[in-house]
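#struct-help
A.M.: can someone run this one for me? Single chain, 82 residues.
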Amino acid sequence: MTDDKNENEEKRELYKSLGFLSTLGITLVAATFIGFGIGYYMDKYLLKWFGLHTKPVFSIIFTIFGVAAGFKNLFKLIRDKK
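D.P.: on it. Structure tokens below:
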């Protein structure tokens, strides 16, 4: 009985760890894509509304912001886990 209990506890800890690691990856990727999307649409609408040709500028800037935000969230999640 105790072997089953220990085995179930080990599986539960494994699933918790896998869930936490997948959360880290999803957070980083999602923040990057959101930053890129904001920059892409800013470039698109600045061209449409004002005739400004800023095609790669805001995409690059907001992608960098997205990566930075992703790492900030990543470190925050790791810090809170401890």
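A.M.: thanks! The chain has a mean pLDDT of 92.
D.P.: also worth noting: DSSP finds two helices and no strands in the chain.
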